[in-house]
Amino acid sequence: MTDFLADLAATLIRNGSVPPDAIRGCTDAEINALMAAQNVTTLPTTFRKFLSYTGRNPYWFSRNDEADYEWLLDAKQYARETVEEYGHDFTEFEGAFIFQTHHDYMFHYFRTEDLTLPDPHFWVFRGDSPPERSEVAFSQHLRLWAEYRVRPDYPG
């Protein structure tokens, strides 16, 4: 995973799409703080590696969603507000780890039972729809996004 991200970053730095100082990862202490803030005791291995490599500033990779360290400290509260705004009960998300939000209607998360898996599928909550399981595991999701990110017609 880290090699994959490093290879992608090197390509984007080489072609001038990303400045080298844009890639900043989280320390182990920061990752532990994220887990404490969201009241979980572990994270999937691939996601932990993602945080270590680029958790402080993932926006060089994807600019479409809120997913940086500072944001994730409060992401569970944002997710709670979203769920309750749509009239749902937040109970099923209490033990989850919210890793990405999108405005005020959607978020991506790992369910409690997925947190111990090395590379699980994630789930997506979208307002009026029931939660949906991702079609691919987290690492494959990153690979697909990376393929899009390095395309010459990438809008970012």
Describe what you observe in this structure.
- The chain contains 6 helices and 4 strands.
- Strands 1-2-3-4 form a 4-stranded antiparallel sheet.
- The longest helix has 13 residues.
- The radius of gyration is 15 Å and the shape is globular.
- 29% of the residues are buried.
Secondary structure elements and pairings:
Blueprint: H1 2-14, H2 28-37, H3 45-54, H4 69-73, H5 75-85, E1 97-102, E2 106-110, E3 121-126, E4 132-137, H6 138-149
Antiparallel strand pairs: 1-2, 2-3, 3-4
CATH architecture: 3-Layer(aba) Sandwich
Number of strands: 4
Helix/strand structural class: alpha+beta
Series of H and E elements: HHHHHEEEEH
Which stretches of 5+ consecutive residues score pLDDT under 50?
none
Report the radius of gyration as a whole number of Å: 15 Å
CATH topology label? SMI1/KNR4-like
Residues in helices, as a percent range: 25-40%
The amount of beta strand, in percent, is 5-15%
Q: Total number of helical segments?
A: 6
Give the overall silhouette.
globular
- Terminal CA distance reads 23 Å
- What's the pLDDT, averaged over the residues? 85
Report the sheet with the most strands, covering strand number, pairing sense and barrel closure. Answer: 4 strands, antiparallel
- Report strand order across the widest sheet: 1-2-3-4
**Tally of separate domains:** 1
CATH top level class name: Alpha Beta
Quick one: CATH superfamily? Answer: SMI1/KNR4-like
